[in-house]
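Why does residue order matter? Because the sequence determines the fold. Keep that principle in mind as you read this record.
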Amino acid sequence: MKENYALITGASSGIGLQIAHCLAKKNYNLILTSRNKSKLSDLTKEISFKYNIKCDYFSSDLSEINAPYDIYNFTKSNNYNIEILVNNAGYALPNAFHKNSMEEEEKCLRVLGISVIALTKKYINDMISNGGGKIMIVSSVAAFAPASSLQSLYGPVKTFMNRFSESLNFYNSKGITSTAVCPGYTVTNFHTASGVQKEMDSVPSFLKKSAKRIAEEGVEAMLKGRKVCVPTKTWQIVVFLLKVIPNSVFSLISGLLAPGRYDKVK
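Structure:
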């Protein structure tokens, strides 16, 4: 007999880990995925014991082309029915576009975009057969901001993911909802890992939010079937301003909102 689970990518740290805790508190069984096998193993035991739920893991690198299919095959072979799909895994490159290799750019696109599409395509057919399901795509406030000189692909891919998530809501008639969660600056290890910790350190503290808060607001929005969630009032105001102020005005305040991200290419 199949049991229902929530699958979370990038679940070993940051927002993904906090989403795992939020869903476990609500008595959802979990499948955790990330590249860090040893950490996943420890977290699986910890979460399973703490919340008295079923929790399993599968180590996978979503920058590899076959990774989404390996994840899907793992869940199918174990009769895990995925009722919630959380596409959270992150990836970013610290250098200017001309300094990154094409291989690095392709890996970035696979993690942030192609793997999201591939996983969704696999699981959405199961969701249709099962009469419904919920999808979360962890996007970013960068989806609403002007293009930046750092991480050239990051903002455009997140804009693409927002539109992709929006299109998935045409499956509402099948009982399926998709929520694009768009956090602003979040305190995780992502910025160190992607080489922009210096810029993150320059961001005013009132703009930095905890991964726990982002996860809680994102999970609530997903469970309610909201199409877009910008966690925290602070970033809701920022996104509103990004939509209404001209780019020429934004350039005057970009040093406050996004230190280093709108500097000239070196």
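The longest strand covers residues 80-87.
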